[in-house]
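Sequence, please.
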Protein backbone atom coordinates (compact mmCIF):
# COMPACT_ATOMS: atom_id res chain seq x y z
CA UNK A 1 0.00 0.00 0.00
CA UNK A 2 2.78 2.43 0.88
CA UNK A 3 4.62 1.66 -2.38
CA UNK A 4 1.42 2.23 -4.35
CA UNK A 5 0.82 5.47 -2.46
CA UNK A 6 4.35 6.67 -3.20
CA UNK A 7 3.89 5.81 -6.87
CA UNK A 8 0.59 7.70 -6.90
CA UNK A 9 2.29 10.76 -5.38
CA UNK A 10 5.02 10.70 -8.04
CA UNK A 11 2.38 10.30 -10.74
CA UNK A 12 0.47 13.33 -9.41
CA UNK A 13 3.66 15.43 -9.50
CA UNK A 14 4.30 14.38 -13.08
CA UNK A 15 0.71 15.30 -14.02
CA UNK A 16 1.07 18.74 -12.40
CA UNK A 17 4.26 19.40 -14.38
CA UNK A 18 2.49 18.36 -17.60
CA UNK A 19 -0.43 20.66 -16.75
CA UNK A 20 1.93 23.59 -16.34
CA UNK A 21 3.48 22.83 -19.74
CA UNK A 22 -0.01 22.74 -21.25
CA UNK A 23 -0.84 26.01 -19.49
CA UNK A 24 2.27 27.67 -20.91
CA UNK A 25 1.25 26.47 -24.38
CA UNK A 26 -2.30 27.82 -23.81
CA UNK A 27 -0.78 31.22 -23.05
CA UNK A 28 1.31 31.20 -26.20
CA UNK A 29 4.58 30.50 -24.41
CA UNK A 30 4.08 33.22 -21.81
CA UNK A 31 5.57 32.21 -18.48
CA UNK A 32 5.14 35.41 -16.45
CA UNK A 33 2.11 36.89 -14.74
CA UNK A 34 -1.10 37.02 -16.74
CA UNK A 35 -2.33 40.59 -16.92
CA UNK A 36 -5.53 40.25 -18.95
CA UNK A 37 -8.44 39.83 -16.44
CA UNK A 38 -10.51 37.73 -18.86
CA UNK A 39 -7.55 35.42 -19.52
CA UNK A 40 -6.99 35.11 -15.73
CA UNK A 41 -10.58 33.95 -15.24
CA UNK A 42 -10.25 31.45 -18.10
CA UNK A 43 -6.95 30.03 -16.86
CA UNK A 44 -8.10 29.89 -13.21
CA UNK A 45 -11.19 27.96 -14.34
CA UNK A 46 -9.07 25.45 -16.27
CA UNK A 47 -6.70 25.00 -13.35
CA UNK A 48 -9.66 24.63 -10.94
CA UNK A 49 -11.02 21.81 -13.13
CA UNK A 50 -7.58 20.19 -13.24
CA UNK A 51 -7.23 20.50 -9.46
CA UNK A 52 -10.68 18.95 -8.93
CA UNK A 53 -9.67 15.99 -11.14
CA UNK A 54 -6.37 15.60 -9.28
CA UNK A 55 -8.29 15.70 -5.97
CA UNK A 56 -11.02 13.19 -6.89
CA UNK A 57 -9.53 10.10 -5.19
CA UNK A 58 -8.50 12.18 -2.18
CA UNK A 59 -12.04 13.53 -1.82
CA UNK A 60 -13.46 10.00 -2.02
CA UNK A 61 -10.97 8.79 0.58
CA UNK A 62 -11.77 11.75 2.85
CA UNK A 63 -15.50 11.04 2.69
CA UNK A 64 -15.07 7.37 3.62
CA UNK A 65 -12.59 8.26 6.38
CA UNK A 66 -15.27 10.57 7.83
CA UNK A 67 -17.72 7.64 7.76
CA UNK A 68 -15.22 5.41 9.56
CA UNK A 69 -14.74 8.05 12.25
CA UNK A 70 -18.50 8.43 12.71
CA UNK A 71 -19.55 4.76 12.57
CA UNK A 72 -21.49 3.74 15.70
CA UNK A 73 -20.56 0.53 17.57
CA UNK A 74 -23.64 -1.36 16.43
CA UNK A 75 -24.11 -4.17 13.94
CA UNK A 76 -25.18 -1.71 11.24
CA UNK A 77 -22.34 0.61 12.24
CA UNK A 78 -19.87 -2.27 11.89
CA UNK A 79 -21.14 -2.95 8.35
CA UNK A 80 -20.70 0.73 7.50
CA UNK A 81 -17.25 0.70 9.13
CA UNK A 82 -15.98 -2.31 7.16
CA UNK A 83 -17.57 -1.11 3.91
CA UNK A 84 -15.96 2.33 4.33
CA UNK A 85 -12.65 0.65 5.20
CA UNK A 86 -12.87 -1.37 1.97
CA UNK A 87 -13.34 1.88 0.06
CA UNK A 88 -10.35 3.45 1.86
CA UNK A 89 -8.24 0.46 0.82
CA UNK A 90 -9.51 0.55 -2.77
CA UNK A 91 -11.35 3.82 -3.57
CA UNK A 92 -11.91 2.78 -7.19
CA UNK A 93 -13.78 -0.44 -6.35
CA UNK A 94 -17.47 -0.50 -7.19
CA UNK A 95 -18.69 -2.79 -4.42
CA UNK A 96 -21.95 -1.40 -3.03
CA UNK A 97 -22.75 -1.50 0.67
CA UNK A 98 -25.56 -4.00 0.11
CA UNK A 99 -23.40 -6.39 -1.93
CA UNK A 100 -21.36 -9.24 -0.51
CA UNK A 101 -17.70 -8.46 -0.03
CA UNK A 102 -16.68 -11.42 -2.18
CA UNK A 103 -17.46 -9.44 -5.32
CA UNK A 104 -14.71 -9.77 -7.89
CA UNK A 105 -14.49 -6.00 -8.32
CA UNK A 106 -13.07 -5.71 -4.79
CA UNK A 107 -9.76 -7.13 -5.95
CA UNK A 108 -7.73 -4.52 -4.02
CA UNK A 109 -9.35 -5.53 -0.74
CA UNK A 110 -7.65 -8.23 1.38
CA UNK A 111 -9.50 -11.52 1.88
CA UNK A 112 -9.62 -10.96 5.66
CA UNK A 113 -11.59 -7.74 5.20
CA UNK A 114 -13.99 -9.40 2.77
CA UNK A 115 -14.40 -12.17 5.35
CA UNK A 116 -15.27 -9.60 8.04
CA UNK A 117 -17.88 -8.06 5.77
CA UNK A 118 -19.45 -11.43 5.04
CA UNK A 119 -19.54 -12.19 8.79
CA UNK A 120 -21.28 -8.88 9.47
CA UNK A 121 -23.81 -9.32 6.69
CA UNK A 122 -24.59 -12.69 8.27
CA UNK A 123 -25.50 -10.93 11.53
CA UNK A 124 -22.16 -10.90 13.38
CA UNK A 125 -20.39 -8.00 15.07
CA UNK A 126 -16.79 -6.79 15.17
CA UNK A 127 -14.72 -7.09 18.30
CA UNK A 128 -13.46 -3.88 19.87
CA UNK A 129 -9.93 -4.88 18.84
CA UNK A 130 -10.94 -5.36 15.18
CA UNK A 131 -12.76 -2.02 15.21
CA UNK A 132 -9.65 -0.36 16.67
CA UNK A 133 -7.33 -1.94 14.10
CA UNK A 134 -9.53 -0.80 11.24
CA UNK A 135 -9.62 2.76 12.55
CA UNK A 136 -5.86 2.81 13.21
CA UNK A 137 -5.04 1.52 9.73
CA UNK A 138 -7.49 3.96 8.11
CA UNK A 139 -5.83 6.79 10.08
CA UNK A 140 -2.43 5.82 8.66
CA UNK A 141 -3.75 5.62 5.11
CA UNK A 142 -5.50 8.97 5.58
CA UNK A 143 -2.34 10.63 6.91
CA UNK A 144 -0.29 9.55 3.86
CA UNK A 145 -3.07 10.55 1.43
CA UNK A 146 -3.34 13.93 3.14
CA UNK A 147 0.42 14.47 2.76
CA UNK A 148 0.28 13.56 -0.95
CA UNK A 149 -2.71 15.81 -1.49
CA UNK A 150 -0.95 18.67 0.29
CA UNK A 151 1.86 18.28 -2.26
CA UNK A 152 -0.66 18.47 -5.12
CA UNK A 153 -2.23 21.55 -3.52
CA UNK A 154 1.20 23.17 -3.14
CA UNK A 155 2.01 22.44 -6.80
CA UNK A 156 -1.17 24.10 -8.03
CA UNK A 157 -0.63 27.01 -5.64
CA UNK A 158 2.91 27.48 -6.99
CA UNK A 159 1.64 27.44 -10.57
CA UNK A 160 -0.94 30.09 -9.66
CA UNK A 161 1.73 32.26 -8.04
CA UNK A 162 4.04 32.05 -11.07
CA UNK A 163 1.24 33.23 -13.36
CA UNK A 164 -0.05 35.93 -10.99
CA UNK A 165 -3.33 34.07 -10.41
CA UNK A 166 -5.38 33.85 -7.23
CA UNK A 167 -4.87 30.34 -5.82
CA UNK A 168 -8.16 30.62 -3.92
CA UNK A 169 -9.94 30.64 -7.29
CA UNK A 170 -8.20 27.35 -8.19
CA UNK A 171 -7.81 25.38 -4.96
CA UNK A 172 -11.22 24.32 -3.68
CA UNK A 173 -11.46 24.55 0.11
CA UNK A 174 -12.86 21.37 1.73
CA UNK A 175 -15.75 23.47 3.12
CA UNK A 176 -16.97 23.87 -0.45
CA UNK A 177 -17.00 20.10 -0.97
CA UNK A 178 -18.41 19.02 2.36
CA UNK A 179 -15.57 19.36 4.88
CA UNK A 180 -15.13 21.76 7.78
CA UNK A 181 -13.86 25.20 6.84
CA UNK A 182 -10.13 25.55 7.40
CA UNK A 183 -9.61 22.02 8.76
CA UNK A 184 -9.32 18.66 7.06
CA UNK A 185 -10.93 15.64 8.77
CA UNK A 186 -7.54 14.65 10.15
CA UNK A 187 -7.30 18.00 11.91
CA UNK A 188 -4.44 19.26 9.71
CA UNK A 189 -4.72 22.90 8.75
CA UNK A 190 -5.79 23.60 5.20
CA UNK A 191 -4.36 26.81 3.85
CA UNK A 192 -3.73 28.22 0.43
CA UNK A 193 -1.33 31.05 -0.21
CA UNK A 194 -3.02 33.76 -2.34
Amino acid sequence: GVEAATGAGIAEGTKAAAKEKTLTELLGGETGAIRDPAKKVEVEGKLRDDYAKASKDFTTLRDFKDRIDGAPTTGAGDIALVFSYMKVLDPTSTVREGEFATASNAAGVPDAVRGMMNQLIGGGKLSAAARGEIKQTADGIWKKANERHSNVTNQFSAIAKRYGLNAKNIIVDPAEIGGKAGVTPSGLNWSVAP
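Residues 100-107, 177-194 have pLDDT under 50 and may be disordered.
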